[in-house]
Amino acid sequence: MGPIAPGRDWASPDEGSEGTAPIILASAATGIVDYIESLHGDVDRIFGHAGIAPSMAGSPTLKLKLSSFCNLFEEASRLTGNDNFGLRFGNQFQPRDLGLWGYAAISSPTLGSALENMVGLFAYHQASSLMRLVHDEDGLMRLEYKIQAPDIIERRQDAELSLGMFLNVFRECYGAGWAPEEVHFEHPNPVESREHESAFGAPVYFSQPANALLFRPEIMDRPMPGRDLNLMTMMQTCLERLSELPEGRASLVGQIRNIIRTKLPDGYPPLNAVADELRLSPGAIKRELSSEGVVYKDLVEMTRRDLAMMYMKQRQLPFSEIAFLLGYSELSAFSRAVRRWTGESPRTVRAGLLGA
Fold first, then answer.
1. How far apart are CA 190 and CA 140, in angstroms?
2. SS3 content of the chain, % helix, strand, coil (to 5)
3. Do 149 and 130 form a contact (C-beta atoms < 8 A)?
4. Which of 183, 21, 15, 12 minimizes the C-alpha distance to 90?
5. Cα–Cα nearest to 239, from 98, 334, 338
6. What pTM did the predictor assign?
7. Chain centroid to CA 199
8. Which partner from 153, 179, 184, 251 sits 20 to 30 angstroms from 354, CA to CA?
9. Among 270, 263, 275, which Cα is nearest to 326's?
10. Could you give all domains of the chain from N- to C-terminal order, each with its CATH number?
11. HSE-up of 308 (CA within 13 Å, CB side)?
């Protein structure tokens, strides 16, 4: 296995192969119909709300809109009354159920090459998202995952099922008892968070910059039990032929919104900080945004509003914590912002969102 460059990542562009909507292979939803039925959920209603036909779930070659896929799991959680739906679904999901991408991983020679294959081929499996292997300063490795499509705001269930899927690639190699050193999620602490530590067998931290499994690098040399170079090469070729990787990168507006979302818990993100991260001058960003009819402060406002509506659906989050996550120094500032957006108090807005 060759060395891994620190910080190297493969982020797919903002366009999927179906118009401008980012996509995901339908194999990522393998087994969801049976799983919903095991919870006595209404399959037709859940899929109908997500705009997906149940017959599409699990197909190795069909593509779903990534937004519809995420919405499918959010609706499944809501309509089955199972707040940890994604966590439980991902925990029982086997790597081979991921289709071409999963088989490319489990047929790799070692765990390290399996992870490298997953990262290197990820853009063929899912668009507008990031997956990377990174060396931490403390000597641990991080397998990071994050949706980068700025319009997909509600994605907690996807994050939890995705890390559960990745966990089972490690367990394919080391057995069901293997556990990472730490688990990170970008969303806030959910209601039933104790179950997360039980599922992963490790400390779990929320409100982090990215979703990640942290583990010791020496474990990557272990051979995969199902290693098969011919099968691995075949799966790689099939993925590449199935989905031509489009050229280009995510729009600048999308990139800026993603950076804003990450920096908000530290307060209002100044344009200079965003410019530094993009390695552009503030003037260049202003000119580019102006050409698209966008002002930076309005972009921050839009991001805060979208996140606020998502957070207020989570009844366990107090308004003081939501204010912090959105970068407001005082609860009163958050309350004024909600009134500015909706004409109502946060309490009234939350009641409406939960009632709906």
1. 26
2. 55, 10, 35
3. no
4. 183
5. 98
6. 0.79
7. 18
8. 184
9. 263
10. 10-242 (3.90.1520), 252-355 (1.10.10.60)
11. 29
